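Incident log, structure service

09:12 report received: a user says their structure output differs between two submissions of the same chain.
09:20 pulled the input from the user's history:
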Amino acid sequence: MKFSIKLVLSTMIVLALALGFSGFYFVNYVFETSLDREVGQALDESSILSFAFETAALNVPLKYSVLPDSVVEEIASKLEMGGQSGGRLLRIADEEKNILYTSSGFTSDEGLLPQTDLHTKSYRVIRAQDGFYVHTCVAINTLNRILYLETMKDVTEVFTERALGFSLYRKVTVVILLTGIVIMLFIASLLTKPIRLLTKATRKMAAGDYTYRARQVSRDELGQLTGDFNRMANALEENICKLEEEIEAREEFMGAFAHELKTPLTAIIGYADMLRSHKLDEEKSIMSANYIYTEGKRLEAMSFRLLDIIVAKQDEARLLDVPVGELFAYLREMFAEKKEMDIRFVYEEAVVRMEANLIKTVLVNLIDNACKASEYSGVSPEPGGKAADQKGSDMAGVPEASVSGGSTGVVEVTGERVDGGYRIAVRDYGIGIPEEEQIKIVKAFYMVDKSRARSKNGAGLGLALCAEILKIHHSGLQIESKEGEGSCFSFVLAL
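09:34 re-ran on a clean worker, output below:
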């Protein structure tokens, strides 16, 4: 179905519903108002008749101590003939609610009598063969008797007016809708002309003609849309080459990523399996072999998971609440055998939302890079120097631990609460990174010193993977570095 037809139909449906509901509400409101007025008049007339009956009963001769039925019928007959247009419709019942007098034409049943007592006044709207009536019932206490007076007031005219109102409104609605359809068809044709031109342009571009541009025929929002479309087409034509280059670079990255990470992991797993398959005298060797094998398998699984994340660019990681203490305990155990470095862990207890294995991968990469930078510097900060200054009053009272032994370099791993989350930082006092290189190092396969990195089996993937993992956690890698003084890599996670 064409958009213009949809526009006409939707407009007409809305208009029909609006007219229908408003008409129903208006006619029904007038009807309810008129009916309430008639009910009020019927109740007032009933009260007047009951008062008139009581007044007439006061004129009964004193010889009657109790109002007799014959007098009741006489008074009721007079009240009936006192009405306008041929009399009133009324009915009188005694204490036992037996009918004593009934007007000719009074056709209602005794539905109100059981509901009425001395202190109540009841009414209902009923439908008879010849029309609609307001049926009322009220108790009369006079001359030692309790009687019940019923009246019927003709309100057929009110219902007739409602029917006529609905009929007239339906005719008016049909005329308005037919006229609206003709007008909306013309308006829709004018409004959708820019859309038709845009559709033609999109088909041209889909067929490969990126030079075709849509003709702008108005200056309204659709005209602006046409202009925006043409500008988008210009940008699209300019970006096609860039996109092709990015696709080629991504394919190269995927191949190099799989090769650079799979090869060392396979060697680790093979070496660990060899240690597991031989009986060794030392228990520590077996424990180390099990650790290597377990971590190797974990890293292999992690590599493929990271590969899927980078390829698909989809946020599939499940973020869970993880205690920071567990994360730092893993890092201390991981780097416990690195005796040549003084690795200090200072953190504030907290529960952070993360995918634990992915964040472990980030921190292992950052700490490993910090250790390598410190090894090449050959410098260790003095007590009370920069390393000591990092543990100031803000971190007082938080857990602290270090992994050290004859160290030549210091690496500090800190965790603390900040505005907006939890900040984890890895600081070294190594060779630092040139300022012009700091923006580039998070790119895949980029290495500041390729010869040094290759000597340590580096592939230039660590920081690129860290950046991708932190994107999944809605965070980013912050880099602070100065040549000869060291570097600090940090990121913030949500609490």
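09:41 both user submissions now match this output. Likely a transient worker issue. Closing.
09:42 reviewer note: The longest strand covers residues 131-142. Residues 382-398, 450-459 have pLDDT under 50 and may be disordered.
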